[in-house]
Specification:
Elements (H helix, E strand, L loop, with lengths): L3 H17 L18 E18 L3 E3 L2 E23 L4 E5 L2 E13 L2 E21 L6 E14 L14 E2 L2 E14 L4 E11 L4 E2 L9 E15 L1
Antiparallel strand pairs: 1-3, 1-12, 2-3, 3-4, 3-5, 4-6, 5-6, 6-7, 7-9, 8-11, 9-10, 10-12
Length: about 230
Amino acid sequence: MLTPRVFFVLIFSSLLLGLAQPAVAQSYGNRHPFDFKRFNLGFLMGMTYNSYNLKEQINIEEDGIMLHRIELVPRYGLNLGMITNANLSRRLSLRFVPTISLEQRDFRYYFSDGPQMRKIEASYLNLPVMLQLKTDYYRRTRVYVLTGGQIGFNLASNKRVRDDLTLLKITNQDLSLTFGFGVTLYGDRIKLSPEILYTMGMVNIYEPLYTTHAEAISSLMSQVIAININFE
């Protein structure tokens, strides 16, 4: 089965190999004026598809109620962020992109007395630092790949809520790796860059305290696919 993680690794590797090839002199033109700037700012807007890498244990009984299995239901969310870009060389940039991400995932619990819906809502302040490798400028376009690390702070963490035992809880910090690719379209006064990012959580963020059938979930690791439009 081709999981999102495997898909993005394949795409990212293919693009990275392509960018490593030497440029063909007769095909590429000169640099765009934007590319002579050492530093520039921008913003992004996007949509996310939010899921988890879920590890569960089935047939857990508590207070005489049997939980047979858990079904994860991914949901869509929103991305808003600021772009800070420093050009290290003609084809390499360092990017810091603080982003607010509104996320939700639903969980369908199959109990012996019927199904029950639970959910996790989060508002993340994500702080990714990424390297961007770009092709040479050609006919007002450049293709690029991105990779880096990210720390996220859940501004709506509910891990300390005790009065709702059906509420799923997560920690207030997350660490993840980010991979992506996109294309930059140059205008006279602005750069527009549609891109796709895959963020893969590296730590378990599940908080089992004050939740019924808490041991049914062994770990939750975030998985997010984002489709962004960058304006610089």
